[in-house]
Structures are given as structure tokens and as C-alpha cells.
Amino acid sequence: MLDKILTLLKDGPKAPAASVTSGDAKQVAAAALMVEAARLDRDFDEGERATITRVVKEQFGLTDEAATDLVDVAEKRQKANYSDMAFINIVANSFDDGEKKDLLKMLWTVALADGSLHKFEEHLVSHVARELGLTADDAQAAKVAAQG
Questions:
Q1: Mean pLDDT per 10-residue segment, the chain (148 residues)
Q2: Judging by beta carbons within 10 Å of its beta carbon (0-12, 13-18, 19+), is residue 13 exposed, middle or buried?
Q3: Which residue, 6, 62, 66, 88, is the most exposed by fewest CB within 10 angstroms?
Q4: HSE, side-chain direction, 13 A CA sphere, residue 93
Q5: Which residues, 6 or more positions from 63, have their beta carbon under 8 angstroms from its beta carbon?
């Protein structure tokens, strides 16, 4: 019982089982990186939130409710972490190369959602690509795919 209380205090309340579960750690990590990309220009607005929700819904085949829940959980987890490396490590260990490239496209989609690309957003995508073992060409191809 004490372990459950300590876990609740440390990790916060768990999402309902019907929406985001612990088995979705890789989805939470991907969504948290997208939230980070949206926040880097210090203007995380509803349009960017809607873009993230749409992207995770399409990419992961989620319902509207599950996508919204995923973004909510990701936002809370992203706020609680001081580094994006925890999320990058989850992605590195659980995504295949195609999924990693898809993540870069998702990050570019979010970074470009507000119509301007901030240098910090661009740096994040490059950083994630490097940490995942992807090339600058992979990052550029994902950017082109996100724009088109």
C-alpha cells in the first residue's frame, strides 16, 4: 500500500485504463517530445495542442478521446522532466527506424504548425535525430514530408 502511495506521489495519478496505459510509454514519449517542440518558442497555444492531438491520433490510430488523453498525460510528464533525454531514450529503445523517422516528421509538423520555425524548435529536431542515430538527411526528408 505504501508503495502505491509513493508511486502516486512520484508519478501523479494514472490515466484511465481505457485511454492511456503504462503500455503506451512510447506514445507518451513521442507526444512529450512534440509538446516540448511546441513549448520551445514560449507560445504553446490551442492550435499547436490540436496539431499534436491530430498527429498522435493519426499516427497511433487513436480515438479522439484517447488522443486528447495522451496529449494531456504527455504534457504533464514533459513538465515534470528537466530533460528530454528520458523521452528520447524510450523512443530509441522502443521505436524501429521507420517509427523514428515518422517521429521526426511529427516533430516538424508541430514545429511548423504556428507558421514560423523558431531556432530552438529546429535545434530540438536535430538533437532528437542525432540521439536516435538518424542523419541530417533523414531530418531534412522528414521536414519536407511535414511541409507537403
A1: 47 42 78 91 82 94 94 90 87 94 95 85 93 95 92
A2: exposed
A3: 6
A4: 8
A5: 57
Considering the domain boundaries, does residue 88 fall inside one?
A: yes
CB-facing half-sphere around the CA of 70: CA atoms within 13 A = 30
Domain presence at residue 119: yes
**What is the number of alpha carbons within 13 Å of residue 7 lying toward its C-beta?**
5
CATH of the domain at 111: 1.10.3680.10
What range defines the domain where residue 128 resides?
Answer: 24-147
Each residue's pLDDT tens digit, 88-118: 999 999 999 999 999 999 999 999 888 878 8
CA atoms of 78 and 72, how far apart (whole Å)? 10
Whether 14 is covered by a domain: the verdict is: no
Q: Does a structural domain hold residue 7?
A: no
Q: Report the SS3 class of residue 45.
A: coil
Give the global pTM.
0.77
* Alpha-carbon distance values, 12 to 58, 73, 79, 90 (Å): 27, 10, 12, 19
